[in-house]
Design a protein that fits this description.
A hairpin with a 2-residue loop joins strand 2 and strand 3. By secondary structure, this protein is α+β, with helices and mostly antiparallel strands. It is 45% helix and 19% strand. Helix 8 packs antiparallel against helix 10 and helix 9 packs antiparallel against helix 10. The two termini are 37 Å apart. Bound molecules: zinc ion (ZN).
Amino acid sequence: MEAEGVPTPGGARYWTQVFVRSAILDEVYCPYAYEEIETLVTVEVSAQLDPDQRYGIFWHNTKRNTYKQVSETSFNGKTYRKKRRVTPKPREEWIAVPVPDSGIPREWVDAAREVIKDNHRSPSTSRRFWELSGGLLRCGHCDANMRNYTTLGSRAPDVWYFYYRCARRAEKGDEACLHKKMYPAAGVEHRVWEFVSGLLTDPGQLRADLDAMIEEERQGMHDEPEQEAKPWLSKLAQVESKRSRFQDMAAEGYITFDELGAKLSELEETRTFAVERLEAIRNRQERIEEMEKDRDALLESYASMVPEALEELAPDERHQVYRMLRLRADVRIGGALEVSGMFGEEEAFCRSKVRSWTP
Ligand SMILES: [Zn+2]
């Protein structure tokens, strides 16, 4: 399909191994003889089938969905949502639905199944924790995420290799991004950790850096949040009093109801704008508070560790540290790595802490 340029249903250029595997095992594509199908369905169903035809099987009623109410704490307080759990049903409950022959020869299906019979997921693949996943590592050429990639070695059959590579190129093909190289995961992770553990072993400097970053974010606010919110709050109060004044005028017949409608929608616009501004001020305030919390956690829990203990940190703990640092690492074509601590999404906050290496 890749050779013929057939895109995935989602429009991606490359098909995943997981899909190929499930297609090979999917009974829908496997042509069964009438005699085989007959044993799986009721007499009424088999009576409608053509004994000279082959059929695939769509298995119905294979899974059970159960829903559970769960509560979550977020910015807006407690929210509730339904959580779905899928459990397989016992084989006896499955219902075979004959579907038209896919046209794929049975020998092909059998041969393909034979080939993947002994394949198993590498235990280390599922267990490996990708420290730089979740958008921490980016393609320095096209700004996409670097996604992880696992492959079996060609020489030794049981050796797996782990890489990061540009997600856009992996998905959309060679033309989508020129960043061809796949980077051995351990190497990139080591370099990033080397940099970050360097930061952590100098708590004095780290505190100064973090304070500077938080200050930078605070500078983005012209005043203290309460000060900044004030004009918008009084704007809101104004809107309210104007609204009732206009309504009185309309009631007294000084303005028509059409005029009232126009005035009110004008006021509504002003009100929406003021509410948005207040929201932004509050978000920024929350962001700063989170940064302060992370700063304290970093300084208390990690920066006070002895270097040996730092080296012992598990990959998921390192990932946690990166998150707290708002870390972002860009790999440029050629392998230079730029690491920055970033706050929010505004470009203005990217400037601090850029260091690079060339491997
Ligand atoms: Zn790229």
